[in-house]
Amino acid sequence: MENPFKNIDQPLQEVPQELKGKVMHDIAMAKLLMELAELFSYNIGHIIDSVTSKRK
């Protein structure tokens, strides 16, 4: 197995457009899922807070 750290000081190579597109799509999907999870978690927290404050 080749040592990957030998290539650290080499000049950067261009990444293929297909790979760039796939990575950007995956990042966009992950960001969307994180934003949806954040949206629902904040709303559930607000609902729980409002229900407990109305019970008092």
Automatic annotation (TrEMBL):
Source species, domain of life: Bacteria
Name this protein carries in UniProt: Uncharacterized protein
